[in-house]
Specification:
This protein is α+β, with helices and mostly antiparallel strands and about 240 residues long. The chain has one domain: Probable tRNA modification gtpase trme, domain 1 (Gyrase A, domain 2). Helices cover about 20% and strands about 30% of the residues. A five-stranded antiparallel β-sheet has the order 2-3-4-1-5. Strands 6-8-7 form a three-stranded antiparallel β-sheet, with no helix packed on it. It has a three-stranded antiparallel β-sheet with strand order 9-11-10. Strand 7 and strand 8 form a beta hairpin. The longest helix has 10 residues. The relative contact order is 0.18.
């Protein structure tokens, strides 16, 4: 009999563990989300930005008791660890790559709702891998959700242009973080002139971040008055209105 159970393992994700005295205060002053309020049942999508408020890395934060787990791009794990280490100074904080895997399912039964958007499905961490989730990429993109350096860029896109406000990737009441001044100014002035959007595959141009010919989609950085054939899901439509 053929096993029709869909795979859940997100092969392009990896884990960092950040631990030590004052670890939450350490991260609180760096990333865009509120780390002090992190709980086991509610992971949070967050970013590490430049001083100008542009995305360097995006990731999901998980409570791990006295430590924090960072669910990040596997290809960027080492670079993210190095970047976090720059800010450690003399703090007794340990930043280490650990074994473990990230899983996803469209339906409940395991894990917790994706912190960005409920319709993305459910996410959890485990020690085992299992079969790879082959439909995650298209599912995510057709909901208009972008992630990772290939799509967001590194030091290319302002965090709010990555739709971070709409996808629960920033807290404006948590105090300072790197890039907070420009990010907050854009928020309070409601001045987000460009957006990362997903569109049907077309000819690549200067606005194109990356293309996925195998699923007929592309990610572009477009001005809000020129979104053209981009997908405008309900969550983005509400923001644009």
């Amino acid at each position: 009999m053929t096993d029709t159970t869909p795979g859940t393992w997100l092969a392009d994700r990896a884990l960092l563990r950040v631990s030590g005295e004052g670890v939450r205060d350490f991260l609180q002053g760096l990333v865009t989300q509120d780390v002090l309020g992190l709980s086991p049942e509610a992971p949070r999508w967050s970013g590490l930005l430049t001083a100008q408020g542009k995305a360097l890395f995006d990731f999901i934060l998980w409570d791990d008791g006295d430590a924090v787990l960072i669910d990040c791009e596997a290809a960027q794990r080492e670079a993210l660890a190095r970047r976090l280490s720059l800010y450690r100074l003399r703090r007794p904080v340990t930043i280490e790559a650990i074994e473990g895997s990230v899983h996803w399912s469209r339906t409940s039964g395991h894990g917790f709702p994706d912190p960005r958007l409920g319709t993305l499905g459910y996410r959890w961490l485990s020690d085992g891998r299992g079969d790879e989730a082959t439909d995650w990429l298209e599912h995510r993109l057709r909901l208009g959700v972008t992630e990772g350096v290939a799509e967001l860029g590194s030091d290319k896109t302002l965090w709010l242009e990555c739709n971070a406000r709409e996808l629960n990737g920033v807290r404006f009441d948590k105090g300072c973080f790197i890039g907070q001044e420009n990010t907050a100014r854009m928020h309070y002035r409601s001045k987000v002139n460009r957006r990362l959007v997903v569109a049907p595959l077309g000819e690549a141009g200067p606005r194109t971040r990356t293309s996925y010919p195998e699923i007929g989609l592309m990610v572009e950085h477009r001005r809000v008055e020129d979104l053209g054939d981009a997908f405008i899901p309900d969550w983005l439509a509400a923001a644009l209105s």
